[in-house]
UniProtKB/TrEMBL annotation:
Record GO terms (molecular function): 4 iron, 4 sulfur cluster binding; coproporphyrinogen oxidase activity; metal ion binding
Protein's organism: Staphylococcus lloydii
UniProt family annotation: Belongs to the anaerobic coproporphyrinogen-III oxidase family. HemW subfamily.
Top-level taxon: Bacteria
One Gene Ontology term, aspect cellular component: cytoplasm
Keyword DNA damage: no
GO biological process, one term: porphyrin-containing compound biosynthetic process
Record's subcellular location: Cytoplasm
Full protein name: Heme chaperone HemW
All copies of domain Radical SAM core, residue ranges: 1-231
Annotated function: Probably acts as a heme chaperone, transferring heme to an unknown acceptor. Binds one molecule of heme per monomer, possibly covalently. Binds 1 [4Fe-4S] cluster. The cluster is coordinated with 3 cysteines and an exchangeable S-adenosyl-L-methionine.
SUPFAM superfamilies on file: Radical SAM enzymes (SSF102114)
PROSITE patterns per UniProt: RADICAL_SAM
Amino acid sequence: MKVKSAYIHIPFCVKICTYCDFNKYFIQNQPVDHYLDCLIKEMEMSETRELQTMFVGGGTPTALDVHQLEKLLIAINNLFTITGEYSFEANPDELTIEKLQLLKRYGVNRLSMGVQTFNPKLLEVLGRSHKTEDIYSAVENARTVGFESISLDLMYQLPQQSLEDFKESLDLALALDIDHISSYGLILEPQTQFYNMYRKGKLSMPNEDVGEAMYEYLITRMHSSEMHQYELSNFGKVGHESEHNKVYWKNEGYYGFGAGASGYVDGERYTNVNPVNHYIKKIENNERPILHATQPTRTEQMEEEMFLGLRMNQGVSISRFHEKFDISINEIFGQTLSDLLERGLIKQSDDYFSLTERGKVIGNEVFEAFLLSV
Ligand code: SF4
């Protein structure tokens, strides 16, 4: 199937957050210009020139200075025709008018801002580089420059965070009348500052019940606003769902460009080499910068179809499954589906199986059932 989407990874940040286990490096003393040259070379190697969606993420792409940013934007424009969503991830304190104008000039039509919380104390605990007031000025600047599609990332289940605190952040985000919100619970990942603090008893996390209550509140609050839930952690106004992210959940192909980026092309899932210097070396040697690549088996593809598709409110299409795998969904997953239906964790309507409200809260348990069943 023709690949219609691409992800570009900019693995640099101006400050390293205490909870972060993403693939990123403190930008100071990194070979940023050299990295961009190699990234552009990697993009030149790809066959596709027409894309429906593009997502530039990181790290933080807006950590680049204006010259670096323009170099990247020009290269993307020269190499690809992007017919649909063109998103840039951004930190609020880095969204200056100058950078926003550049993004706009080169066709970026959606901003995804890493806000995480409006609580100034929690922003500090998270080690974020921005302050609460930066969120307001970034949204205002983006609107002044003419961005119509703005998404905010909000986290919940943060250290010492109460349900009330999360409610307040959510209300403040909604009061900004933006178009899209992604909200994820914090997971303590090994090799982060948070994880070490937690092990030493220096970090107090809300218990699981509070985390569940926050997620349930999130769904209810969004339901009563204009934002409809279309994926477990994603909410948008009509016409503002992330088309790029839907490519992942629909288990479709995409390129991944940059150090540590992942892609899915012609039935092959691959991950690029990391760290930055290893990536640069591969590209300089005119090699594909692949660390590992696998071809998911048919069974794995069917499992992925289920647990990725069930993340979306719409769910998994019974007819699409049949079309894709030439076998009925019931023949493969019949027992699991009837168990989950009986337990009230999934429901069936017309052509779709989807999660119930309870199923959404314990989604991982549902997904695991499909891993075990084949
Ligand atoms: S800005 Fe994002 S990628 Fe960078 S350290 Fe913070 S959470 Fe990680």
